[in-house]
Amino acid sequence: VGIYKENRVGQGTRGSGNTISKRSGSRSQQRGHTVTNTKNETRFQWFFQRMEVPEAQYDPQTGQGLLCIEELSKEDKGVYRAVVSDDRGEDDTILDLTGEALDAVFAELGRIGALSATPLKIQGTEEGIRIFSKVKYYNVEYMKTTWFHKDKRLESGDRIRAGTTLDDIWLHILDPKDSDKGKYTLEIAAGKEVRQLSTDLSGQAFDDALAEHQRLKALAIIEKNRAKVVRGLPDVATIMEDKTLCLTCVISGDPTPEISWLKNDQPVTFLDRYHMEVRGTEVTITIQRVSSEDSGRYGVFVKNKYGSETGQVTISVFKHGDEPKELKAM
């Protein structure tokens, strides 16, 4: 009956019982407890495995204490205790979320997830054609998925990949061919709930997805092979006059890029004090006996048939006895 017989915090002998709910459109799990006969200084706390849960919420106007757990998992298995207290004493209630109770929650989440599955969509990707459905929740232990092509069960292989995330069920057809055309069906089973979704990958749907796949694949090849300045050049290089400056950067590209250097947007002529050396993917520019005339904005320009890129650096030459500009600014 509680700790105090009269004027005790709680409803009669304690507050109303625990409730468990799943928010529509969310993967979160809510645990709620409502209390009455409270005062302004009444304190409400949630504990999990005897440790206080600081992110729990309590609304003194409604008397509702709420604990919301995003993306419920087996790690949340355990005993939850709601405690309400003030100067009159304390009262509590316990929720044992283990065993059959936890299984029941996951089963219900699985049912909600299966019912939430959106109609199948077809999408061209860099690797092939993807067929997928969005769900509000997916748990691999309590939900099972099976894909069919022309009513024949599909198994993952060299060209067929199937998988899931917390909010996505997908089938990926790599290097698509005409033989991949036809009806595809996704079967989602969650306990007694079984749902089937189908789409037809043929005609214009197949042609559009294949065209998008080919476009993205071509773009990926361009991005992979185009000329790039990968790393190496600083934003600013400061050096004293009469010294030798060496700047090295790393480039990439297939075919091997053409390389040129610019100074203030004008081509650099490699004569006398200016030298360039290329060793594999490393490009080095050397300026001997630098002077104030060598100060300026330099760029290494690389180009091949797939594209071009410029890496830039500002060179600042200071005289003997002077401080570098960045030191003066400090």
What is the strand tally?
25
Overall geometry comes to flat
Number of helices: 3
How would you spell out the order of helices and strands?
EEEEEEEEHEEEEEEEEHEEEEEEEEEH
Main sheet specs: 5 strands, mixed
Report the average pLDDT across residues: 84
**What share of residues is helical?**
10-25%
Low-confidence stretches: 1-27
Strand order of the largest sheet: 18-25-24-20-21
Structural class: mainly beta
Radius of gyration: 33 Å
How much of the residues is beta strand, in percent? over 45%
- The separation of the N and C termini measures 72 Å
Search tags:
330 residues; mainly beta; five-stranded mixed β-sheet; four-stranded antiparallel β-sheet; 25 strands; flat; disordered N terminus
Structure, explained:
The protein has about 325 residues and is mainly beta. It has three helices and 25 strands. Strands 18-25-24-20-21 form a five-stranded mixed sheet. Strands 1-2-6-5 form a four-stranded antiparallel sheet, with no helix packed on it. The longest helix has 23 residues, at about 205-225. The radius of gyration is 33 Å and the shape is flat. The N and C termini lie far apart (about 70 Å). The model is unreliable at about 1-25 (pLDDT under 50). Pfam families: I-set. Keywords: Immunoglobulin domain.
Topology (SSEs and partners):
Blueprint: E1 16-22, E2 29-34, E3 43-48, E4 51-52, E5 57-59, E6 64-69, E7 78-86, E8 89-97, H1 99-116, E9 121-124, E10 128-134, E11 144-149, E12 152-153, E13 160-164, E14 168-174, E15 182-190, E16 193-201, H2 203-225, E17 228-231, E18 236-240, E19 245-252, E20 258-263, E21 266-267, E22 274-279, E23 282-287, E24 296-304, E25 307-318, H3 325-329
Parallel strand pairs: 18-25
Antiparallel strand pairs: 1-2, 2-6, 3-4, 3-7, 5-6, 7-8, 9-10, 10-14, 11-12, 11-15, 13-14, 15-16, 17-19, 19-23, 20-21, 20-24, 22-23, 24-25
